[in-house]
Every structure is written in C-alpha cells, then in structure tokens.
Hints:
Layout lengths: L1 H31 L12 H8 L7 H5 L3 E11 L2 H15 L2 E8 L2 E9 L3 H8 L4 E11 L1 H27 L3 H33 E10 H6 L6 H44 L5 H10 L1
Parallel strand pairs: 1-5
Antiparallel strand pairs: 1-4, 2-3, 3-5
Helix pairs in contact: 2-6, 6-7
Amino acid sequence: MKRIIAIVIVVLLLLISCSKSSFSGADYKMAAEPSGVPQLTSMDDRSVVAEDSNDGSTDSSQIRDRKRIMNAYLEITVEDIVSSEKEISKRVLDSGGWIVSSNLYWEEISLVVKVPSISFDSFLSDSEKIGEIDSKSVTADDVTEAYFDLKSRIDNKIILRDRFRDYLEKANSMDDILSVERQLNDVTTKIEQMEGSFRGLNRDIDYSTVTFVLRSSYIESSSGNFPSFTETFLSLKYKIVSFLYYLLFIIIYLIIFGVPIVLSLGLVYVLGWGRVGLIRKFFGKLRK
C-alpha cells in the first residue's frame, strides 16, 4: 500500500513539473519575439484603411452632401449680339466667375463662361431675359462617389507617407534607409498627382460651365418679310465690321510674310544686277 501511494505521488510531481516547463517555454517564445518592428517591403494604402478606420459605417453627412458638376447650353436670338455679349460678361464677372472663351463668327457669337455653382440657377434665369430662347440644355453630372473615393485615397496616402517618415527616422541600416526613401518618394508623388486631380474636380464642382450661342434677330426676320430700316442698318453694320476685320487680317498677313519676301528679292536684285552687280559683272567678264 505504501508503495502504491509513493508511486502516485511521484507521478503527480512529474505532471506538475511538465506543466511548469511548458508554460515557461511559451513565455520564453513570447519574450523572444520582436515587437513593433516595421515591415517596409509591402505597404499598401488599403491596409491603412483597415487599420485606421474606426468602423465600417458610411458618414451620413457625405451621403447628404451630393457633389454635382453642372453644365448648361443656351442658344438665344438677340437684337445686338455685341451688346448682349457685354451684358452677359458683366453678369459673369459680377457673380465671381470668368470668361473661358469668346468667338465671333458670321452673325453669331459663341461664349463659354464659368459661374459659381451656388448662383447657377439665378444666373441662368437672368441670362434668359436678354433674348428669345431657341434651345436650352442643362445637365448635372453626379460625382459624389468619385469625389469621396479620391478624398479617402488621398487621406490614406498621407497616413502612409507619415508612417514612412517615422520608419525613416528609426531605420538603422543603409539598405533600410534607401528602401524607405524610395517608397516615400513614390507615395509623395502619388499624393501630389491625386491632389491635383482633386483640385480640378473641386473647381468643376464649385464653378459651373455655361455655353451661350448668340444669334442676331435680323437674320430670321430678313428671311420672311421685307427687312425694316433698322434691320438693314444692323446688317450693313455687321458687314462693314466683318469687312474691316478681314481687311485687317490681310494687311497683317502681308506685313508678316510680304515685307520679308520683298526685302529678300530687293537684296538679290541689288547684289546681282543693281549697284553691286555681281552677276552682271560675272557675265560681263565672260563676254570679254
């Protein structure tokens, strides 16, 4: 009986010692593992999203704040296209916008402007009063998803850039320093490119594009009944302006290209047959 008790005690002691040794081995492995060592080989901004996002829910304010790019196209018949263009341009500048382009064609003006989106509707309403609307088109391009996606990508890239800067300060070997600097430069370049696209997108959202095509009313009236004196005068005025415009263009063209040609021909004549007469003297010697 005493032998059996002694054997049981020995077995229990062996089991206790084995369990202690297994716990101490596990503690040793945990203590031996490095902590907080940065891995510089495969960093991705998507991993930053997973680590730094507080939750998976979408901000409700972003859903309500829709981002749209507004565009409008208006064809308007007016009495005087020049004065109408000046009136529209003044309204654009007063609203805080600017003129993108203005082109004068035969009896027609094409005008492209940028106006603040907050005054887009009121600007269109005021502009429609300058004449008779022949055609009108308004479009709204919803870029909400692209806007917040690009903004989120930029924020994540900035977080990644800051981490690389921290890694660069902690790097010890030259290989680690070069690796971090290369990846830091790549991330910085991508941030600059995306920020440029984001600024352009914001500009298109904040400022709407309006295209005007202004046509003179006397063109339509002259195709029906006999034109009045006012319509005839306007037609004559536009034709005179157009004639002077093309005449000025021809004069500038002749000055730019004609004068050098005439001077070149005159120089050749002077050197060959004129006062210098090199060619004339050469043929004179041949005759002798």
